[in-house]
């Protein structure tokens, strides 16, 4: 089937960038991204592309290139579904916060709502694509809903997980390591796979487009995230051992990364991984394994999360003990709140948990992040439900100017690896701080020698 009309349900960090790139690379396809969130859609349509809701280097230009031509953002979900030949489901699949599987399983209520809506609205055959990260065998549930509540039209379900990382989304989408498409082994299933392959083949070399059965595709996504997160927890585990033994984790990472079997990527010790995916997907994997009675498999992967929680907690504990075991009323400046550089996303950011620990000790937190505003910081802390909104506001401020954020502080904690942090006038920052002035570098970002020379007491991870 020649594809000329695509719709994507969910205009978030995945749906927005992914569809913007498809639209740019396939000018012959009309791409409509729909969402229930009116404010989000209004921002995607904002004339000034600096105001689109997702910050990603290069994304503004790509949106500007196609928007209004073959790329549309809309709240008219039914209309877009009805017109499309391919419907991507790219809604959120967070960890369940209630009922059975609470705190572990993926919450599929948004997925099911989408399936029911597609079933209700569709009058012509459709290919439905799982773009969201889903538990293995979810396609079965989607198919059952579509087949039993639809208008007798034919649906093919494909799994096409997204591997982009935030902060490099545009680069990752333009030049993906691979595109994975899973579908039914039947003739209709294979035809549906081919239709989607043809879309990607507009810019992705065919040898990088991998096709599998649906279950392999669904499970590969959880597996990829589990392996990546495991590497971070592994190097973070070694960072603690380095601190006790005089080894330096940066040197260890370099030494092992030169082994071509290990490779150099994803070996950066840190205050702990964050982001909306790693923890959620591993918890989901643990839950699925347990539900099949595979307790050893579940325990193996759960350890990745346990290690990550430990790494975050040990960072805040070290701040308290180094600052003479009391940080009550001391100003501590946070450089960075986003879960990594080059994104405005703060979901599961280590900064949130470190701040929560330090507020428990009555510290005053002053946040500076180039892309995150005060409203978001407070909303992240409120979400933990540790204390009231008013109490959080009493303990946390945010600044648009980094020098103001740091002035009079007892310590600086680097929580995100934004490049600009390296370029500051660190002497000026030092001069404005309480003495002794401490820097706790949760990203091993700053030039240790330079910072120490100025007079800071500098502590990094894993040395
Ligand atoms: P997001 O929260 O940024 O966006 C999801 C959007 O879906 C929201 O705007 C929400 O309003 C909308 N939505 C929910 N239900 C809807 C409905 N019934 N109709 C219309 N709109 C609806 O989430 P995200 O970060 O884009 O993630 C989406 C999925 O992609 C998740 O399953 C996630 O695991 C996966 N994923 C995310 C990343 C990432 O880097 N963020 C990478 C790969 C995969
Ligand atoms: C991840 C996967 O990489 C991506 O393929 C998937 O589609 C979504 O989940 P993302 O969470 O956006 O992407 O960013 P990623 O670069 O993986 O970083 C995740 C977290 O790990 C960040 O907090 C990052 O700072 C941390 N990290 C990463 C480290 O601490 N050390 C590293 O070496 C790499």
Automatic annotation (TrEMBL):
EC number(s) from the headed UniProt entry: 1.1.1.22
Family as reported in the entry's similarity comment: Belongs to the UDP-glucose/GDP-mannose dehydrogenase family.
Organism: Flavobacterium cheonanense
Top EC class for this record: oxidoreductase
Keyword Flavoprotein: no
Keywords: NAD, Oxidoreductase
Pathway: Nucleotide-sugar biosynthesis; UDP-alpha-D-glucuronate biosynthesis; UDP-alpha-D-glucuronate from UDP-alpha-D-glucose: step 1/1
PANTHER family to which the protein is assigned, alphabetical: UDP-GLUCOSE 6-DEHYDROGENASE, UDP-GLUCOSE DEHYDROGENASE/UDP-MANNAC DEHYDROGENASE
Catalytic activity: UDP-alpha-D-glucose + 2 NAD(+) + H2O = UDP-alpha-D-glucuronate + 2 NADH + 3 H(+)
Pfam families xref list: UDPG_MGDP_dh (PF00984), UDPG_MGDP_dh_C (PF03720), UDPG_MGDP_dh_N (PF03721)
Protein name: UDP-glucose 6-dehydrogenase
Annotated ranges, domain UDP-glucose/GDP-mannose dehydrogenase C-terminal: 333-448
